[in-house]
Amino acid sequence: MRLLKNIALGLFVVVVLCVAVVYGLSSYRMGQKVSVTDSAPEFPRDSTTVARGQYLVRAITKCAECHGQDLGGQLFIDGGPLGTFHAPNLTSGTGGTGTVLADSDVVRAIRHGVGPGGRKLQWMPSRDWVGLADEDAAAIVAYIRSVPPVNRPSEASSVGPLGRALYVAGQLPLFEAEAIDHSNVARTRPASGVNAEYGKYLADIGGCTGCHGPTLSGGQVPGTPPDMKPASNLTPEGIGHYKESDFFRALREGKRPNGTQIDPFMPVNATKLMTDDDIRAVYAYLKTVPPKPFGNR
Questions:
Q1: Which helix (H) or strand (E) holds 76?
Q2: How many CB atoms within 10 Å of residue 209?
């Protein structure tokens, strides 16, 4: 009997120590600062720039998917033991960042996933946007500054015990600022048009690699639950049989060539707003990527 009690006590102590180590290490890493030096673009507010920013936010960079259609912030992950994550209010209303952050702060947050004081931003998909051209970064800022103010406090996010453990184990990409080469500042926007180079730019800042992987071959999206469907293979080995009209249908209607529905995780509410030429440009780019077997992210 005493032996069983000693074993139980020993296991309890081990569990407590493991929890303490995970909590301490995760707190230390979460609190580490990132130093970023970024060139601040010019910030025009003319109607053409604002319109470009609106198109980018709504159709390409998909900011509303996390921050809400009014950009006033919302709960976007309720993961139980994983954590509860809120996207902040981006407007100039009460509780928003619009009256707190300078234009250059917004650009740093977008391209680097870093807030004021070097604070790392949770779940900010800045690996997709580190190559965002200056003029497009400025356009996004111009549009965000133009939206109606929303009076909604930005709620704090919290990382749960499972989230902390996975983060320490390298299985939960909480902070993309940790994976970005912050010295990579070549941000020239290719000439727009139906060409593969511009299509790659749109695919990159549109977050295609965020879900489908750097090689676009699909597979399980990092940080998602195991029961979530994997992302599709976008290389010629995966959707190489898609005609241009099939690709249009996928992005506009969220349907495959056979008429079946693509997983709702695909942000069709955004991609359906893309212009015809931009969809054609992305299609042209996907035709140029090397074929890869499914899941070879």
A1: strand 74-78
A2: 17
Pair 51, 142: CB distance under 8 Å: no
DSSP state of 116: G
Q: What is the CATH number of domain 47-178?
A: 1.10.760.10
Q: Collect all residues with Cβ–Cβ distance below 8 Å to 94 and sequence separation of at least 6.
A: 149, 151, 152, 153
Q: 3-class DSSP state for residue 29?
A: helix
Which DSSP category does 59 fall into?
I
Distance CA 123, CA 69 (A): 18
Do 90 and 98 form a contact (C-beta atoms < 8 A)? yes
Q: Name beta bridge partners: 159.
A: 83
> Hey, is 38 helix, strand or coil?
coil
pTM of the model: 0.91
Q: Distance (Å, rounded) from C-alpha 84 to C-alpha 174?
A: 12
Q: Other C-beta atoms within 10 Å of 142: how many?
A: 22
- Are the beta carbons of 218 and 297 closer than 8 angstroms? yes
One-letter amino acid at 87 equals: A
Q: Quick: pLDDT tens for 246-295.
A: 999 999 999 999 999 998 889 999 999 999 999 999 999 999 999 999 87
Cα–Cα distance measured from residue 35 to residue 53, given in angstroms and rounded to the nearest whole number: 27
Domain residue ranges of the chain, discontinuous segments joined by +? 47-178, 196-286
CB contact at 8 A, 96 and 154: yes
